[in-house]
Design goal:
With 626 residues, the protein is of the alpha/beta class. The chain folds into 3 domains: 216 residues, Glutaconate Coenzyme A-transferase (3-Layer(aba) Sandwich); 293 residues, Acetyl-CoA hydrolase/transferase C-terminal domain (Glutaconate Coenzyme A-transferase); 73 residues, no CATH class. α8 crosses α9 and α9 crosses α10. The longest helix has 19 residues. It starts with 5 loop residues before the first strand and ends with a helix. The model has no long low-confidence stretch (mean pLDDT 94).
Amino acid sequence: MTGKPEQHQRAESIADRIIERLDGRIVLGLPLGLGKANLVANALFERAVEDKAIDLEIFTALTLEKPSWSSDMERRFVEPLVERLYSGCPDIAYAEALREGKLPENVRVSEFFFVAGRWLAVEIAQQNYISANYTHVGRYVIDRGINVLAQLVAKRGDGADAEYSLSCNTDITLDILPKMRARREPFLLVGEVSSQLPFMPGEAALPAGEFDLVLDGPDRDRPLFVVPREAVSTADHAIGIHAASLVKDGGTLQIGIGSLGDALTAGLILRQRRPELFADALHRLSAHDEAAKRETGAFETGLYAASEMFVDGFMDLYRERILKRRASDGAILHSGFFVGSTAFHRFLRDLPEEERALFQMRGISFVNELYGDEEQKRADRVNACFVNNAMMVTLMGATVSDALADGRVVSGVGGQYNFAAQAFALEGGRSIITINAARQARGRRESHLVWSYGHTTLPRHLRDMVVTEYGVADLRGKSDRDCIAAMLAITDSAFQDELLDTAKSAGKIEKDFTIPSASRRNTPARIAEALLPVRKQGWCATFPFGTEFTAEEQHLVRALRHLKHTSASMRLLARAVLASLTQGQPDQEERAALERMQLAAPATLRERFYAKLLLLALRRGRCMSP
């Protein structure tokens, strides 16, 4: 570490300096998600491709890539979206080479968390995946000899007064930086300045002298990678309302990413603004008298957030005066990393500095663990609800969140285990797994609640609360038999009998057990009916917080999803093809969607076929519950 960093305007010159100072043996750490120094990483990768004497090993996670397509219909939707949202965002070179099988022998890439489903078919990525709790990653990369950490940073001031904020990714950096400096081995901290990153204060802010090399050139104004907010289905909203009824005023909250996180946020805001309507919706959704035991009042004291990821939803909760309870240090949120929508990034940039200080970015060990400052953390994290998503849950409460039965990794463990462990360690803490009871896959519906599975992320002895659209199963401290009964009560009715028969055959529930009649109506139709009064009053929208998608794209999202499910079954596809032949002329809304897909005036037989199928999907999608 020097008194001030070397300043560079070109990533190539930084790459040359790194290679020179480390004699060509580079173990590069890149933060997960948004915080990667893409230009520096790309320059190092290009040098390694050109010079096989350079040895480059990369450790990272959550490599963000622009959306891609696997069919001409998808291309028509995605290509203009990519141009609009990601123009100016540099691609990450190692990811493209890895996906195409063109990674040089002198370059190795290992990740500990994938963008969900993106690397399932890439064997080398699967082979190099590191299974790790988020809090253990720092020690792993130190053990593997990391000697460069290259990160996107925000800058404030100039010269000797300059400060750099780790901004979106304090997570691993704050944990390993003191350890690397203490080892006195060759190590370079490299900053890549972005004028679009918000300058997050507190521990995220580092003096210039902490950095060895800084890239601050003409590309500093390029746009940030954005993650558009997803469509929220009716089932998602039902889950969100159930989960929101478990959150106590004055408590602590962790929220996961995606549509279920947005559904929970929407449920909390409905409870805040219209507690009577929230209570009525909860009563309509609940098969038993559960609603009377839940939390339905508005938030007076408010919530504090201790969340691995600072998601868009916390912005909405702050604006609604729900996220307002202060921790011991005055913060209303402690988090380790963020990446979000354009509106979310703008929100953080535009906040007055004293307000931005309410959102404190810390090392991941602070957020995900109780170790260190334990007394303070216990005082702050009262009545904590750690809400995370899953792929599947077994009837005896084991959670599957990261990988398939054959070992292929879908995403990663991340901090899910840490938060489950915290929930058991904290007084009043609960680990809440939110999951859709069923999904449409390969042309048919499949249950997400299963008897058993060949892989688990959270073992069944850490079972706590599971929430589906059909209700809440409180599994903590329950016997296997009672756990199975509770899970069957929140299972889609199409799968209850088969699962019950399996449980009986295994001797895990009595032979004469019957599922209560109130739980025999666990169908999508009942959920849609229960939420209809709320929807009529403007709640439970498909995009409750807006989206980067245009109006036409919002219609197309639903239609293309319907078309994808239909195409997965030859029988359904054949029916759709026949039905499409009888479609009349498109109305104004449908024509706008067809124009967006360049199918309003089809010139070829294939395009006419696409236009007919898409028109059918638009109409069926409009009639279906979102």
